[in-house]
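Example 3.2
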Amino acid sequence: MTAGTTAGTTAGTVGATAGQDGAAAFDALLAGVIATAGRFGHREHVHLTWLAVRRFGMPGALDLLDEGIRRTATRAGAPEKYHRTLTRAWTELIAHHAAGTGEDDFDAFADRHPDLLDKHLPERFYSPAALAAPEARAGWLEPDLAPFPWRAG
C-alpha cells in the first residue's frame, strides 16, 4: 500500500471490525501507514483514520480505531494516552471531509483539507478544560465551544 492508496473502499458495518478481525484490520492499516512514513506523527494518525473511514465507513472506523488505539496505548504501557472524545472527534472530522469525495489518494485528500493536518483543530470546538476532563478521556463529550459544522443548524 502506498501513501496515496487505500486498503479498500468498501464500507462495512459497525460489527465488521469487532474482535480479532478488527484487531487484524487495525494492525494491517497501521502497518501500511508506518511502512510508507517511517514514523507515526499527526499526519499518519490522519492517514490511518482516513483509510479506516474509507474502508469501514464512519461507525465501523470509529469502532476499529477506538479498540485499536486503546489496545496500542495499553501495549505501549501508556493506557492513559487514550482519549475517547478526541478519537471520535477526529474520526467524525475526517469522515465529514471524506464524505462523497471519492478521493483515492491520501496526499490529494490532505492537500484539499489542510486543516486536518493541524493537530490543534479540535480546539476550535473544545475548550482545554473540556478536553482535560476525565469524562472526555473515558467517553464522548459534545463540543463546548462550537458545534461541528455538520451538526450546526
